[in-house]
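User: Can you help me understand a structure? I only have the sequence.
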Amino acid sequence: MKQDDTASNLKNNLGKLPPPLFGEDDCDRPACHDMMSQMKKASQASQEKKAVECPPNSGVLGRASWTLLHTMAVWYPDRPTGEDQQHMKSFMSALARFYPCTWCARDFQANLEESPVPTSSRKELCQWMCEQHNLVNEKLGKPVFDCDLKNLDKRWRKNTQDPECKTSGLPH
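Assistant: Let's start by predicting it. Here is the structure, written out as tokens:
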């Protein structure tokens, strides 16, 4: 079969696929917002002159890690299965073992020994994560967060009061 025939067959078969299970308006998680805009930006950025990409320093890595951890916590199930609980514990254990900042990893390992990851509910995990973040912030001389679940949900899950949060997904 010639290459043109293969491309034509692929194109014809793609037209017969069922539509995606979810439409563009079905994803109300901030992590889903504005995907097309992000894809366009990525395409434009690849066409522009590439900036030097350096490995993240501890500040960049820390902010990205806390964003991931808090977001995972707020989307953790209210009533997790035993498997969910084990996966979360394993994830935290692996993070403490493989975190690229040696001092940070050792500190987190000590925190896990003193205060194991509570995985029986979303509320417990969210508040524990906030408390862990506050321990780090105190050591770094940074402000601490209010660990009330309503505030954590507003910051990391859904902020319906600020229209900017719906479209950008970026911190202010």
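Now, to help you interpret it: Helices lie at 3-14, 35-47, 58-74, 82-98, 102-114, 122-140, 149-156, 163-167. The chain has eight helices and no strands. Let me know which part you'd like to focus on.
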